[in-house]
Design a protein that fits this description.
transmembrane; 3 helices; membrane; transmembrane helix; rod-shaped; mainly alpha; single chain; Yip1 domain-containing protein
Length: about 200
Amino acid sequence: MTTPDAPQNPPAAPGGWAPPGAPPFGTPSGAAPASSGAYAPPAGYAAPQGFGMPAAPAAPSRPPAPSRHGSGLGLTALVLALVATLGATVGGAIAGFNIGLGAGKGLAYLPMDGSWDWSILTPVRDWVLLGEVSFWFGTVLGVWALVQGIVATVSRRGRGLGIAAIVVAAIGPIVFGGVVQGVLMSGLAAGTGIGG
């Protein structure tokens, strides 16, 4: 049921019926009628913010394409890490045992007052030099392998091999220190005659 005050039909636009695409009250003053029959906003009119065509959806992201360079960078990093760890450990172990063997007697006769006599290492100075060279050889190659492994991992040029190189280069100093200390103690025990 309708109220008596409300009009039944809205009033017609002046000038007759207008198609849905045309302005409701004719052409605005000063504006030329659109030649295609489509509605054109009046001059100086700007649409309110937030209105308009929705933005096109963003293209789905794709994983980066595999590198064409192959896995040579990661493989090189892994080989460097293995050479650094094994080479330094073997060289340090040989040097450590011979240092302990040659300096064992001098250490056994060293007074317990806390003083240290560097002349104890004189007979084994060549082995001490080999131990130092092994340490620095492993350090330089290990750092190189670590950096190259990180680059290979980030640039996806042998990512798995690069991660393996990072792990081997990181545990290399631990392996070196543990093995050299154990072998040095064995050499000292054999050099002093404590073991039997």
